[in-house]
Amino acid sequence: MKIKAPTFADLFAETSPQLGGARRTKFLETLDRIIPWQGLKSLIGPYYSEGKRGAQPYPLELMIRIRFLQLVYNLSDPMCKETLHDSFACRRFVGLTMDSKCPDETTILRFRHLLEKNVLDKQVFDLFKQQLTARGLLFSKGTIVDGSFIEAPSSTKNADKKRDPEMRSAKKGSNWHFGMKMHIGVDKATGIIHTVVTTPANVHDVTKADELRRPDDWEVIGDSGYLGMEKRESADPERVTYTAAKRYGQRKKLSAERVADEKVLSSIRCKVEHAFHRIKVQFGYRKVRYRGLAKNTARLTMLASIANMFIGNCFENRTKVSFV
Q: How many CA atoms lie within 13 A of 215 on its CB side?
């Protein structure tokens, strides 16, 4: 994307920590470096109307970068526009100078709907996964599986006087949750997400265990919610080794040696928690932003794609790599 020459206001903002924001600038520089923008332009370009007759839209790369900015900071369409007006670091990331015209919230919304309508979130996920595979970061034959709640508003104070019909309630421990559930399968060695499945919150984790397994995997690891997964009809116990962590109540009855084995299993299984940390804590998507499963699934799939690039970047930069 061709970026305009900086103005005096740009140069002043770049040297001002109050306007630039050192932490945000560093994060966005990393995001700019690890995302394959040219591959995204080639993928989304055929669906975008850039260069056709009529009023010319904003450049494709500008809109892609705005969408990624919106995802990593969990911004609504109006808030994304306000952030671009207020933050020089964000304007610099998407390629806008201080005096450039910024897309309004309707333009941002239409581009988001374009991605959702053409199911481009899955294609982006596959594109990133292909790049990570080519870099040798999806190489193990083991998968770690887990599921996590994404909360939804349970209030009925809306026009329909109803809660979202596609969301459900489920109990974990002594707490009730209303919303959806994100199930993921990650590579055992690197922790990179290779499969994403979403369901209402009342779907049990164990029912999705084999859907999260790759065809060539010979090992599946889960927490205590996956006990008995090897007994399900979809399981393949002759070829695949299924391992589920014991419940904490059961650990009291184990020998010291078995407890040590459980701790080693937890240290292996924690890679899936790192992926959830990226999506729910770093990117802030603990609660759904839209009604229905489809739009939230599209957003979660895109977030998983971005999380993968950060996880892959961290894995490559580690000085000591331990393969378990």
A: 0
Residues 6+ positions from 256 with CB-CB distance below 8 Å: none
Nearest to 187 by CA among 157, 156, 144: 144
Task: Give me the CATH topology for the region 127-317.
Answer: Nucleotidyltransferase; domain 5 (3.30.420)
Q: What is the pLDDT of residues 20-64, one digit of tens each?
A: 567 888 999 999 999 999 999 999 999 997 655 555 589 999 999
Q: Which residue's entry shows tokens 């309630």? A: 169
Q: And the tokens for 278?
A: 């990226």
| Rounded distance between C-alpha atoms, residue 199 and residue 152, angstroms | 13
Beta-carbon contacts of 55 under 8 Å, excluding residues fewer than 6 positions away, are none
pLDDT the model gives residue 207: 94
Residues of the chain where predicted confidence (pLDDT) is lower than 70: 1-21, 50-56, 319-324
Where exactly does CATH 3.30.420 map onto the chain? 127-317
pTM, full prediction: 0.88
Our measurement of the distance from residue 242's CA atom to the centroid of its chain's CA atoms, rounded to an integer in Å, reads 26
- The packing angle between helices 120-134 and 293-317, to 10°, is 20
How far apart (Å, rounded) are the C-alpha atoms in residues 304 and 71? Answer: 11
Residue 168 vs residues 109, 126, 164, 171, 225: alpha-carbon distances, Å: 27, 29, 8, 10, 18
Q: For residues 50 and 56, is the Cβ–Cβ distance under 8 A?
A: yes
3-state secondary structure of 172: strand
